[in-house]
Amino acid sequence: QPLDYRMVQNGDEQAGKAWNDTLRANGVFKSPGKTYPSLILSEEDLAITQAAITKAAQAVADIKS
């Protein structure tokens, strides 16, 4: 398991791509690099993000199984 940003960067590229691609496909822009939070997110933005993260986690789990 990755413990820090550097370990993530040197981790499973296929899983990272699935994560980012699934987030984008579900309305959340996630660049391939670091992620920074924003204080201007609305409740709707957070709900969209939560749903996208759930789908992205499943996409990564599917790759790992």
Explain briefly what this protein structure is.
By secondary structure, this protein is mostly helical. It contains 3 helices and no strands.
Explain what the structure shows.
With 65 residues, the chain is mostly helical. It has one domain. The protein has helices spanning 5-9, 13-25, 43-64. The model has no long low-confidence stretch (mean pLDDT 89).
Helix count, DSSP H or I runs of 4 or more residues: 3
Overall domain count? 1
Structural class: mainly alpha
Low-confidence stretches: none
State the shape.
globular
SSE succession:
HHH
User: What is Rg?
Assistant: 12 Å
Mean pLDDT: 89
Task: Specify the helix fraction band.
Answer: 55-70%
Record field, number of beta strands:
0
For the record, give the distance between the C-alpha atoms at the N and C termini, rounded to a whole number: 15 Å
Binned strand content: under 5%
Biggest sheet details: none
Indicate the topology:
Blueprint: H1 5-9, H2 13-25, H3 43-64
Q: Which features does this protein show?
A:
0% strand, mainly alpha, globular, 65 residues, 62% helix
